[in-house]
Amino acid sequence: MIMKHFRKILLSAALFGLMSSGTASAAGKLVLDGSTTVGPIAKAFASHFYKETGTQVTVSESGSGNGAKSLINKTCDIADMSRPMKDNELAAARSKGVNPVEHVVALDGLAMVVHPSNRVNALSKAQVRGIYMGKYTNWSQIGGPNAPIIMIQRESNSGTQDSFKELVMGKDNPISKRTETQSSNGAIKSRVASTPAAIGFIGLGFVDNSVKALLIDGVDPDAKTVKNGTYPLHRPLFMYTNGQATGSVKQFIDLPKTAEGKKIISEIGFVNYY
Amino acid sequence: MNLGTRKLLDRAFTALGLGSIAVMAMMLLVVLVPIVSKGFSAIVFKSTVEHRKMVFNEFHRGNRSALEKEIAASDAARRNVYDMLSRFESELMLMNEDKQQEYTEKYDQVKSALRGLLGPLPGDSEPALTRLTYGQNRWEKAEEKLQELLYEKKWDYSNPDVVAKEYFVSRSAGFEGTSLARLFPYVEKNIDRMLLPEWTFYWGFITDSSVDSHIFGGIWPEIQGTLFLAIGAMLFAFPLGVIAAIYFTEYAREGFFNSLLRSANSTLAGVPSIVFGLFGLAFFINTLKVSESKSVLAGSLTLAIMILPTIIRAAEEAILAVPKTYREASLGLGSTKWNTIVTVILPAALPGILTGGVISLGRAAGETAPIIFTAAVSVGSAIGLADVFTSPTPALSWNIYNLASEHEAAAEIRHVQYGMVLSLISIVLLLNLSAVILRARISKKLKG
Questions:
Q1: Taking the CB of residue B150, how many other CB atoms lie within 10 A of it?
Q2: Which of B59, B112, B223, B245 has the fewest CB atoms nearer than 10 Å to its CB?
Q3: Closest to B408 (Cβ–Cβ): which among A60, A197, A205?
């Protein structure tokens, strides 16, 4: 009888030992939340930072809006955002005693992507606006094959969506109700990659062979044109902290200024700001 | 109805029943076979020497001298490739400007295809991202990359009215007349000497942490997070649920209040799980502040509320199923009500209660929506037991979604996603199986 219990105790002790063998949290931890566009940078920084300092970094990709909310509710140390904070968010933050400080991480070009089988290689900004307003409904109207255009946008929580509205649509031009919504950069990419007549917009770091990035106003989106601002749909990517960053938060937020950090950003496909 | 029709109807019904069972079994096969076969490909696959390098450098496993021998052998085969590259580069320098421009673009494509296959080329600066430090880890992916190196995908836009068709152009033809033309047949012929594929059982997929956001390595943090969340939910929900069930069956008097409680419980069982997720965020994290950010604790509490109604119902049914004679015998011998509940009714009802509990455990392990806002992160390392009160964790259900849609290299690492799906299903299956066994053992014991 005693032996039987002993075995059980031993087994559960072994199980608990296995469970608690996670890396110790002595060196502190950082919690990041927010944009799916900044996500790849944040994740790569996280593993680099862990290697360098032993500080655990967790990253959630729930959208810029949720990142801002998390910072306001003090549930994250750093909010990743692909758009600047809005006035109402800043007001909400101040009323809760949070003082959001903006840090630019990298630059991003908003790439308009289509299926590689689409013969359209270049569009003007006005044409893109026309597509999303519902003015053009068939690719043949803008030099493409005879196929109805399937427009894809991001959800309202997305900073990329806000950037798109600001950079392309302008204030008075609503996006057509026929536009389909996907909830992340990756989802738009895979939707476009599997739909010959689709058009969507994603961060430059997400562009790969499965989709074709269009020239906008005759300019190819790449590191050079985004950096010098000739590509019209360019924007900064941000990380927000509560108050001026100190300690490991500061160390993390300063990564884009270091040589290693710059290398990571350009290897992922985004553009260095510093 | 005469006998003949009755027999006919009877047979028709039997056939219908058998038919629907066959359809069910077919559906199950259609769902399970790909899950199992694709899931296992994450663990058992043909690995290249790059995979063994990665395991040795990142996880310090493997035989150093054997690996060094392998690397030397593969380097010997690769040297020719690198020599051809440098020869072509010096050839390129001597060309006139137009030709130089024409070839440089094509040459860059060749180089990036080679990097995807073999890792960084000599002369490249050391990459900062681990995903670029190694060549192709998996042989079946390497074969795809080889095709990309040998053939360029192009699109036929000649007919403006229809969607273009793809066609492939041999890259070696593009370098006809230069020294690089020899590279393509050489790589095609010697690819296995350069990558040394062999069948591997990579158990590290279960026990390792991920490297460079799931590009390499395993899924242990996710498995552990899932177990923590499910067990944590159980720790809260099980005692509460059993106590509530005892109250409902033994103490509550029928009346307005009691029926209100019961209907509240049934309603709770029907609430969509995302609502629990948002409630968990608003209540546990923002209002009660059980933790500063997302945490396993907040996630467990949220999951606990979600599975509570199921546990209460199962426990209630189990208690009601205990024969009345047990109760009467116990009370007749002079035992108190509380004593009867603890020593007679609960032990007799235990198998039923436990079954309900373990099935809810499986549900808690598989739910995504309640943990999105309360516990789950897309990247994080395995946490210790001491961290469950403060740290968020990756979890299988959420990371499967993340890899399927949000990950920047989703198409490259489908096998990780498949492996996660298989692990999650295995965990839930094991939990349910243990419920069956536990139930059988306890009922045997009770029968004496």
A1: 16
A2: B112
A3: A205
Question: Are A22 and B382 a contacting pair at CB < 8 A?
Answer: yes
Question: Does residue A17 surpass a pLDDT of 60?
Answer: no
Both B432 and B380 in one domain: the answer is yes
Residue B422 lies in a domain: yes
Segments of A25-87 assigned E as strands: 29-34, 56-61, 78-81
Does A23 contact B at CB distance below 8 Å? yes
d(Cα A68, Cα A63) in Å, to the nearest integer?
9
CA angle B209, A61, B145 (to 5 degrees): 60
pLDDT at A131: 92
Residues B284 and B188 in one domain: no
Tell me whether residue A274 is in a domain: no
Q: B195 has which bridge partners?
A: none
CATH number at residue B328: 1.10.3720.10
Enumerate the β-bridge partners of residue B47. Answer: B138, B198
In chain A, the number of structural domains is 2
In which domain, by residue range, is A166 found? 108-228
Contacts with A, B 280-319, CB within 8 Å: 285-286, 292-294
Torsion-angle region of B340 (φ positive above 0: left; ψ -120 to 50: alpha; else: beta): alpha
Instruction: Please report the DSSP string for B81-145 in residue order.
Output: HHHHHHHHHHHHHHS-HHHHHHHHHHHHHHHHHHHHHHSSPTTPPPPSSHHHHS---BHHHHHHH
A268 vs A46: CA distance, rounded Å: 14
Residues A112 and A203 in one domain: yes
Rounded Cα gap, residues B104 and B174, in angstroms: 12
Residue B22 lies in a domain: no
pLDDT tens across B367-415, in order? 888 998 888 888 777 777 877 888 888 999 999 988 887 787 888 888 9
Q: Cβ separation of A50 and B166 shorter than 8 Å?
A: no
The reply to whether ipTM tops 0.85 is: no
B159 and B113 together in one domain: yes
Residue A24 C-alpha, separation from nearest chain B C-alpha, in angstroms: 6
User: Which CATH number is A56's domain given?
Assistant: 3.40.190.10
B230 shares a domain with B191: no
Measured distance CA(B294)–CA(B289) in Å, rounded: 10
Same domain, A122 and A23: no
Domain that holds residue B287: 220-447
- Residue A264 has its nearest CB partner, among B129, B157, B381, at B129
**Per-residue pLDDT tens for B62-98?**
888 999 999 999 988 889 889 888 888 888 888 888 8
B381 and A59 within 8 Å at the Cβ level: the answer is no
Are B55 and B167 in the same domain?
Answer: yes
pLDDT for A27 beyond 60: no
Which parts of A73-228 fold into alpha helices (H)?
87-95, 125-133, 159-164, 185-193, 223-227
In a domain, A273, yes or no: no
Token pair, residue A103, equals 């840090």
Contact A73 B292 (CB under 8 A): no
Across the A/B interface, how many CB contacts are shorter than 8 Å?
148
Of B127, B157, B406, the CB nearest to A267: B127
Report if pTM > 0.90.
no
Residues A102 and A112 in one domain: no
Gap between the Cα atoms of A238 and A221, Å rounded: 20
User: Given CB atoms, is B212 within the 8 Å cutoff of chain A?
Assistant: yes
- Whether B378 and A19 lie within 8 Å, measured CB to CB: no
Domain identity same for A135 and A188: yes
B202 vs B340: CA distance, rounded Å: 54
